[in-house]
């Protein structure tokens, strides 16, 4: 006898029929079977789970294609101003489920994007994402004997059902001096808006060597070598450099940066010329900034500025002043870091070798810039030195952030505190010169991926009490404040969290063979491993809790499972040592019978987007504990807040605005503020003084130093302890005491589930500001000069053969 449907399943069935109709459900099944049979050449007897995934992905993509083509047709006809978002680091995560949600298909297919691109499509902006199609993504992290080991992430091994190769748009990607041309092959991925007809494009470039060979070399037997040399060109898109907040002037990285901007700008200009209406003949570029907005995501695509100047001056024959005016009005720059070691500074010698014409252009830009500074501040050599694009100290370098500021009409940070720091400290001279140029655009996250997709239980619960419109207008979550004292809602929110914790505990047991207590507090710290993010401070707290349990095993203790995850850049020794310390502490804590189930330490191997989607909904406490003034914004903090975790954090990055929105009393805020850090820097930070006056800190450090956590090699963590005592720029000891006290407050509140959940509801209700839809709306109106709108693109009809034959389809330009 069939099992009766649950209420939730009945609602989903109704939703299926409402969205696609009964006959369309059958059509989808038919399409799925067709792809399994004809596209993948498999039947159900031998099909693997991956085959089913690919068949489903192709089925869903079929639903996109008509809208995708129609969107591009609409852009061709209406010729709106287009926005181009350039980034060397697009992580799309799981495309299938995100796409199904945005198409309204999620509710009846239960199998298993970058936030800004998602929001651009949802808001109906004519927008394009551009980047590199890396053959190998950020490495896969393995933990062996407690150490991080890197393995290649061959993410394209099985193909990618979402991308469409476009060889017809292959371009000369770049040409280095005295070397062969590198071709750029575009691969397009559709980016659908949420429940609308807009489907935008992300275009990623793959490096290809040309097919022509030198016939003379071929005849003398060097054909094999000529074929092998193709790899040198194609290495450009081979691997993604990990973002480690340390700039390394590697030649391959510069080639990647130039490759993506050279190909992208050719494509942008091709599209501008194709859709430009006017007198036939030579294109007028007068309207270029009115039709094109280019957003530089960090300094990685900064070579776009001299490259556009080269195109305008050398190829299109515009005079310098006109070209410079058009260039500045086209570009805008987003800064993502205040750490000086992370800012790109390319050696002049390297640019001279690879891109001599671009270096000439940069020198000319700099000369005009310095002439202006000289006229405004006569005889002020120090100001000229500080504001020059060329740094003369030691090896001559080009400061790419300065190039971006001078070559853009708008510059923004990604949180209020970060934007203030770049205005008043990092780029103070530039900000004083052109204050109107500097803005703030606080980062945001897409609620489609970071709530509907990863936490359907909570998303549905919210929809039941305030309706479904909040998905496109996250500000509506403030209506949840009316339910803070509602006993039934409190119970339901608590149950959703517990269900997510059970699910994640089961996942850990299946995947990692680790058993955890799902009734314990899930205390989670997941992000790149870096000194400024202070995973070390968390580790010191773990050891302190461990020591307290050992001293008094019968004392009351709120059980915790501390979950830490993140990758260390392969060449970042200190970050790798931090991972080894965490895993070594975990080894001791997890195997101590005195501790039992009270405290567990888990290091999440290979933390990535798909793992984030599992751990974030299950988290009780979110750790956001960077030193005040070092984290630009963070978006993990927002994802945790939206998914019902409470935050323990410093007043840094977006934490500041989260505290403003929810009320500081509804976050666990501790430690130094930016002004306290500045004061301590002035006075001089003395780590030893904290060590001497805080007994628990002294005990913890003595344990690490003496080899308590590394008995086979007592000096294993010497580099870490030396850093903490002698040259810790991020002042871990200075915040230790405040952090311990704040953690005690956390434990106390956790013992009162009702009050804890009330605070959770207040936090969820305050996340409206942190939607990427709000962020993109601000960029659109205040930087790009475009208005977010539903483009009212008519839904596509299925293409019929007679339409295709008779050419009834309107022209399009991808």
From TrEMBL:
<dbReference type="InterPro" id="IPR000811">
    <property type="entry name" value="Glyco_trans_35"/>
</dbReference>
<keyword id="KW-0597">Phosphoprotein</keyword>
<dbReference type="Pfam" id="PF00343">
    <property type="entry name" value="Phosphorylase"/>
</dbReference>
<protein>
    <recommendedName>
        <fullName>Alpha-1,4 glucan phosphorylase</fullName>
        <ecNumber>2.4.1.1</ecNumber>
    </recommendedName>
</protein>
<keyword id="KW-0808">Transferase</keyword>
<keyword id="KW-0328">Glycosyltransferase</keyword>
<comment type="similarity">
    <text>Belongs to the glycogen phosphorylase family.</text>
</comment>
<dbReference type="GO" id="GO:0008184">
    <property type="term" value="F:glycogen phosphorylase activity"/>
</dbReference>
<keyword id="KW-0663">Pyridoxal phosphate</keyword>
<dbReference type="GO" id="GO:0030170">
    <property type="term" value="F:pyridoxal phosphate binding"/>
</dbReference>
<dbReference type="InterPro" id="IPR011833">
    <property type="entry name" value="Glycg_phsphrylas"/>
</dbReference>
<dbReference type="InterPro" id="IPR035090">
    <property type="entry name" value="Pyridoxal_P_attach_site"/>
</dbReference>
<keyword id="KW-0021">Allosteric enzyme</keyword>
<dbReference type="GO" id="GO:0005737">
    <property type="term" value="C:cytoplasm"/>
</dbReference>
<dbReference type="GO" id="GO:0005980">
    <property type="term" value="P:glycogen catabolic process"/>
</dbReference>
<comment type="subunit">
    <text>Homodimer; enzymatically active. Interacts with PPP1R3B; recruits the phosphatase PP1 which dephosphorylates and inactivates PYGL/glycogen phosphorylase.</text>
</comment>
<keyword id="KW-0119">Carbohydrate metabolism</keyword>
<comment type="function">
    <text>Allosteric enzyme that catalyzes the rate-limiting step in glycogen catabolism, the phosphorolytic cleavage of glycogen to produce glucose-1-phosphate, and plays a central role in maintaining cellular and organismal glucose homeostasis.</text>
</comment>
<feature type="region of interest" description="Disordered">
    <location>
        <begin position="790"/>
        <end position="814"/>
    </location>
</feature>
<keyword id="KW-0321">Glycogen metabolism</keyword>
<feature type="modified residue" description="N6-(pyridoxal phosphate)lysine">
    <location>
        <position position="639"/>
    </location>
</feature>
């Amino acid at each position: 006898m069939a099992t009766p449907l649950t209420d939730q399943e009945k609602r989903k069935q109704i939703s299926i029929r409402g969205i696609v109709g009964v006959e369309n459900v059958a059509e989808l099944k038919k399409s799925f079977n067709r792809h399994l049979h004809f596209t993948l050449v498999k039947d159900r007897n031998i099909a693997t789970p991956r085959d089913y995934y690919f068949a489903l992905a192709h089925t869903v993509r079929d639903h996109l294609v008509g809208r995708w083509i129609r969107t591009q047709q609409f852009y061709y006809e209406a010729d709106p101003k287009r926005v181009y978002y350039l980034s060397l680091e697009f992580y799309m995560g799981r495309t299938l489920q995100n796409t199904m949600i945005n198409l309204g298909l999620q509710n009846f297919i239960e199998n298993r994007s970058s936030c800004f691109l998602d929001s651009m499509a949802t808001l109906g902006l004519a927008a394009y994402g551009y980047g590199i199609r890396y053959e190998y993504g950020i490495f896969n992290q393995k933990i062996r004997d407690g150490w991080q080991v890197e393995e290649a992430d061959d993410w394209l091994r099985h193909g990618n059902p979402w991308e469409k190769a476009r060889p017809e748009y292959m371009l000369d990607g770049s040409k280095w001096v005295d070397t062969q041309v590198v071709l750029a092959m575009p691969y397009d991925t559709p980016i659908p808006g949420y429940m609308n007809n807009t489907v935008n494009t992300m275009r990623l470039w793959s490096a290809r060597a040309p097919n022509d060979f030198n016939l003379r070399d071929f005849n003398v037997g060097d054909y094999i070598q000529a074929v092998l040399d193709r790899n040198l060109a194609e290495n450009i898109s081979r691997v993604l450099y990990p973002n480690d907040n340390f700039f390394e002037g590697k030649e391959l990285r510069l080639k990647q940066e130039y490759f993506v901007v050279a190909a992208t700008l050719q494509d942008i200009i091709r599209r501008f010329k194709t859709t430009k209406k006017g007198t036939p003949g030579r294109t007028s570029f007068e309207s270029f900034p009115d039709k094109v907005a280019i957003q530089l995501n960090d300094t990685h695509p900064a070579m776009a500025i001299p490259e556009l100047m080269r195109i305008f001056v050398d190829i299109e024959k515009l005079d310098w002043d006109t070209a410079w005016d058009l260039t500045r009005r086209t570009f805008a720059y987003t800064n993502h870091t205040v750490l000086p070691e992370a800012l790109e500074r390319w050696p002049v010698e390297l640019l001279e070798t690879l891109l001599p014409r671009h270096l000439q252009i940069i020198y000319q830009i700099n000369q005009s810039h310095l002439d202006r500074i000289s006229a405004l501040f006569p005889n002020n050599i120090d100001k000229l030195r500080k504001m020059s694009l060329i740094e003369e100290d030691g090896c001559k370098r080009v400061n790419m952030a300065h190039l971006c500021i001078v070559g853009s009409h708008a510059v923004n940070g990604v949180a209020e505190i970060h934007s203030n720091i770049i205005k008043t400290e990092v780029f103070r001279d530039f900000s004083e010169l052109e204050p109107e140029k500097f803005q703030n655009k606080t980062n945001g996250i897409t609620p489609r991926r970071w709530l509907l997709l990863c936490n359907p239980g909570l998303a549905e619960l919210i929809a039941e009490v305030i309706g479904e419109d909040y998905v496109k207008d996250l500000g509506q979550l403030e209506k949840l404040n009316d339910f803070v004292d509602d006993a039934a809602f409190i119970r339901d929110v608590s149950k959703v969290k517990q269900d997510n914790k059970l699910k994640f505990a089961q996942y850990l047991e299946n995947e990692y063979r680790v058993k955890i207590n799902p009734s314990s507090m899930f205390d989670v710290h997941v992000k790149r491993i870096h000194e400024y993010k202070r995973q070390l401070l968390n580790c010191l707290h773990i050891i302190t809790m461990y020591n307290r349990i050992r001293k008094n095993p019968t004392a009351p203790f709120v059980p915790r499972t501390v979950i830490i995850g993140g990758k260390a850049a392969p060449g970042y020794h200190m970050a790798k040592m931090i991972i080894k310390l965490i895993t070594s502490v975990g080894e001791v804590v997890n195997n101590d019978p005195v501790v039992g189930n009270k405290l567990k330490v888990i290091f999440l191997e290979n933390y990535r987007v798909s793992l984030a989607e599992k751990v974030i909904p299950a988290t009780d406490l979110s750790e956001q504990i960077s030193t005040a003034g070092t984290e630009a914004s963070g978006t993990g903090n927002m994802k945790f807040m939206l998914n019902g975790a409470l935050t323990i954090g410093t007043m840094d990055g977006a934490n500041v605005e989260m505290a403003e929105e929810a009320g500081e009393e509804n976050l666990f805020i501790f430690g130094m503020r930016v002004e306290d850090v500045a004061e301590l820097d002035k006075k001089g930070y003395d780590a030893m003084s904290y060590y001497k006056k805080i007994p628990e800190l002294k005990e913890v450090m003595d344990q690490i130093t003496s080899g308590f956590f590394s008995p086979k090699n007592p000096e294993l963590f010497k580099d870490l302890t030396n850093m903490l005592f002698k040259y810790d720029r991020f002042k871990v000891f200075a915040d230790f005491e405040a952090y311990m006290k704040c953690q005690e407050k956390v434990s106390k509140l956790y013992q009162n589930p009702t009050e804890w959940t009330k605070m959770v509801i207040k936090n969820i209700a305050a996340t409206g500001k942190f939607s990427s839809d709000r962020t993109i709306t601000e960029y659109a109106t205040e930087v790009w000069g475009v208005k977010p709108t539903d483009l009212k693109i008519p839904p596509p009809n299925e293409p019929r053969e007679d339409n295709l034959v008779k050419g009834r389809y309107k022209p399009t330009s991808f």
